[in-house]
Amino acid sequence: MKRLGYTRFVAQGGDWGAALTQQMGIQAAPELAGIHSNMPGTAPAAVDKAIERGDPPPPDLSAEEKNAYEQLSSFYATHVAYAQIMATRPQTLYGLADSPADLAAFMLDHGDGTGQPGLVERVLARTLDSALTRDDILDNITMYWLTNTGVPAAPCTGRIRRTSSTPSPSRSRSPSASSPTSSTRPRRAGPSGPTPTTSSTTTSSTGAATSPPGSSRSCFSEEMRASFRSLR
Length: 232
Description:
Oligomer: single chain
Order of helices and strands: EHEHHHHHHHHEEH
Mean pLDDT: 74
Strand content: 5-15%
Shape: globular
């Protein structure tokens, strides 16, 4: 950013961008005023391990925290297999480079535990009030097909998925946002909980803050402005 002439800036990310933005917060460059994540790492390491083992939720969780625990438990139990394949056996996914139909099927419903497949289905059926269009979906698939990057992207995506739920000690102020479909929703901080530098959280009933490509772009822009206003 300094090479581009920026002496002060903020960073925002979701999914891949969430992990990258979190790393920017850890590095805490002096020019970085703050970060915003719409897939924040909020599960303490001990809780994350309990979820992996399939343990029942701790008895002292609030209703919202219990819901988040169950969402992550469902993710690890029934939705993470695609990422494990991508991280450990990416060449078995050669069909992504062989057939556009295979690539489209994998991208539209890879079961990532965030409600994405259902939302995309509703967009295709034109039953969801969303800024995402059928052409947007086709453009996204076509980008991977024409560049033949479905398989090369697989191992990186698989590795980053497994590290997205636990918090990191970010030293930058970090507003976050979530929605009812998010698998890593903010929750109260305990002794080993989310980074204490988190300055605010926002929950969107529409999913706009969590899945900007599939929701109202104006809503997402307003969320960004509100989150970073105090840092100006």
